[in-house]
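Entry 14. Structure prediction run on the chain below.
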Amino acid sequence: MTLDVSVVVPTCHRPELLERCLAALTAQDYPANRHEIIVVDDAASPETAWQVAHWAGRSAATLRYLALAAPARRGPAAARNHGWHHAQGAIIAFTDDDCIPDAGWLGAGVAAFTLPGGRDPQPALTGHGVPLAGGWGRTLVPLPTVPTDYERDAAGLERAEAITANAFYRRDILASVGGFDERFRAAWREDSDLHFVLLERGARVESIPAAIVRHPVRPARWGVSLGQQRKSRYNALLYKKHPRLYRERIQSTPPWGYYATMATALLAFVGVGQRRRGLAFGAACCWAWLTGRFCARRLASTRRNPGHIAEMIVTSALIPPLSIYWRLRGAWEFREPFLRDRAPLWIVRLVCDDPCPSFQIRGNRATPQQPCHKVDLCAVIEHRAVPRRAGATSLHASASL
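Output returned:
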C-alpha cells in the first residue's frame, strides 16, 4: 500500500536527541494510517534498534528501524537515501534526530503537494503549471538572550534554503535524480546539492512556511568552531557540480580575509627566518589587525564572559589556516580549483557569436548563463574551446521534472 508520506530520520549514536524527536513525530496530528516514520541508523546500534522498537509499540503510525550495512559510517546523505529507497510514501519528509517538529508539521508539508479537494498527495500545479517537486519548511532555532558565537552561527539555519532538517520531496523526483550525492559524507552541503540539481533541471522547489520544525542548539565543547572547519572540504564538491549557483547562493567570492591572514602570517615567519625585522614586524602587525578584526566581529552581540572571550581569541587565530587547509584538501580531493565558473573571453569569442547570449561578459571574463548551441560550456569552462556537435545537449541544459 502506498502511503501519503514517509518521514526519514537519520541518526548515529544520539539516543537522547532521537528520543525527543520521536516523541514529537509520534504526536503528529496527521492520520496515523497514512504515514510512516523510518529511522536510519548509521551506527547500526542495537541500543537504537531497541529504542525504535520501544516507540513502535507506543505509536499509532508505522515506525520502522533500518541500519546501514557498512563497516564504516557513511554519513547522513547515505542514510537518507537508504530511508527513502525503503519508503512507501508518495512524499518523503526529512528531518534530523536533533529536531522537534511541531504537531502540524507533517500535515502542512503534505498540504503543499495536495490539489484542492483532493485527498491524495499530488504534484500541486501552481504558478505556470510546473509541478512542485519539493520544498522546505520553516526552521526555528531558539537562542538565549545573549548567545555564544556558536549559537548565533547555528541560528543561520533559520535563513537557509532546502535544509534537510525540514524538507519535503516527491519520491518520484528523488528517484529521477538519484537522491542525495553520497560523496558528501558529512552533514554539510548535501542538501544544497540536491536543491541545486533540481533547480538546474527546471524543477520548482519552494518554501513551505507552515511546516515548522524547532532546532535547539546542542551544547558544544570549547573550541567547537575548529572542528567545524573540516566541513569546508565539501565546498569544493558543491562548487564543482554547481559553480554558478554556488557563487549566487553560497559564497560569491573566495574567503579573501582568510587568505590575507595566512599570507601575513607566512610573511612574518619569512621575515623572522631572514632576520628582516621590518618585514617581520609589519607582517605581524597586519596579521594581528586582521585576526583582531575577525575576533571582534565574532564577539559582536555575543556572550562576553571570560571563557567565551578566550575561546574567540584562540579560535580566531586558528580558524583561517584550518579553513584554508580543508578548502585546499577538498580542492585536491575533488579535483576542483574553484575556477570553473569563468572562461577567458577570447575562447568564447573564438567559437561563439559576439555578443554571445549564453555568457555574461564582465571585463575580460565570461560567465556561462545558459546552454549555448555553438559551444560546449563544460569544455569552455575548462579552457578548451570545443564546438558543439549537432544534436548534442549541454550538461547545463534544463529538463523539466
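The chain has three domains: 3-220, 222-340, 342-401.
Filed with the rest of this week's runs.
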